[in-house]
Amino acid sequence: MRINKYLAECGLASRRKCEEYVINGEVKVNGEVVTDLSTQVSYSDTVTVSGKKVSPVSKHVYLILNKPKGCVTTVSDDRGRKTVIDIVKADYPDTRLFPVGRLDYDTEGLLILTTDGDLCNRLTHPSSEIEKMYVAKIEGTVSENDLAKVRKGVEIDGRMTGKSRARLIAYDNKTNISTVEITIKEGMNREVRRIFESIGKNVAFLKRVAIGDLRLRGVDRGSYRKLTKEEVEYLKNL
Predict the structure, then answer these.
(1) What is the distance between the alpha carbons of residues 23 and 37, in angstroms, rounded to a whole number?
(2) Distance between alpha carbon 17 and the CA centroid of its chain, in Å?
(3) Of 34, 54, 74, at which residue does a domain stop?
(4) Higher confidence at residue 149 or residue 12?
(5) Which contiguous run of DSSP H or E holds residue 67?
(6) Above 70 in pLDDT, residue 58?
(7) Residue 191 is part of which domain span?
(8) The predicted structure's pLDDT at residue 235
(9) Residue 202 contacts by C-beta under 8 Å, 6 or more apart in sequence?
(10) Do 140 and 169 reside in the same domain of the chain?
(11) Average confidence (pLDDT) over 187-212
(12) Of 176, 145, 180, which Cα lies nearest the Cα of 166?
């Protein structure tokens, strides 16, 4: 198999991240540095990354995490902030888990952690167009005209976002907060917040509640559980 797929099966990272290891000259096959992404590898080969031997994971781990705000969606952080991996490391101290996609520092909600780089690559690839549903609390009122603009797509950094679904769930007169449900298919950095900023609205709270048909129900903030066999199969077939 190609070297990036082999490394992903080792639970090292997604295929795209694994490609960076190869291009940067960090990968050796049978003692020889390889930088060609078309390099073919077999299970009998000895593969090392930064001097450490890696092998395909015999059984992958799939977790659903309810990410709290105040932690970063990375494996490690050079600024010493809490990461999503810190939440699960007590139960998985020696497992190369990594997050599928990202949620920004102040955003809560559904995040998948896995050792399956192949699945991560499929779910995060731009061509996948998997729907992600969020609940946003917006300062002030949100009119039907505002929602129509959001559904149609708005301009961010010179490009139009894709069409989305958006509906007003509730408005609280006392707090002057509107609760909106929005479903997008893209994964631009801070996309939901920036969509509402483009129409003059500030997002006070944001939570991802679903990826496709996978829902966050039953997982408390800051906790996690294993995905069921049926849920894993569902994600693999998206």
Answers:
(1) 8
(2) 14
(3) 54
(4) 149
(5) strand 62-67
(6) no
(7) 131-211
(8) 92
(9) 138, 139, 140, 196
(10) yes
(11) 94
(12) 180
Average pLDDT across the chain, whole number? 92
> Do 18 and 7 contact (CB within 8 A), yes or no?
yes
**DSSP H helical ranges for the chain:** 3-9, 15-23, 84-88, 117-124, 144-152, 191-198, 229-236
% of residues, the chain, pLDDT over 90: 71
Q: Looking at the structure, do residues 66 and 118 belong to the same domain, yes or no? A: yes
Do residue 106 and residue 150 come from a single domain?
no
Q: Count how many domains the chain has.
A: 3
pLDDT confidence of residue 36: 94
Q: Left, alpha or beta for 102 (phi > 0: left; psi -120 to 50: alpha)?
A: beta
Tokens representing residue 72 in the block: 């970063």
Backbone angles phi, psi at 73, to 5 degrees: -90, 70
Q: Which residues are catalytic, by number?
A: 104
* Cβ atoms 68, 220 nearer than 8 A: no
Q: Positive or negative, the Cα torsion across 188, 35, 75, 237?
A: positive
> CA-CA distance, 135 to 109, in Å (whole number)?
9
pTM score, two decimals?
A: 0.79
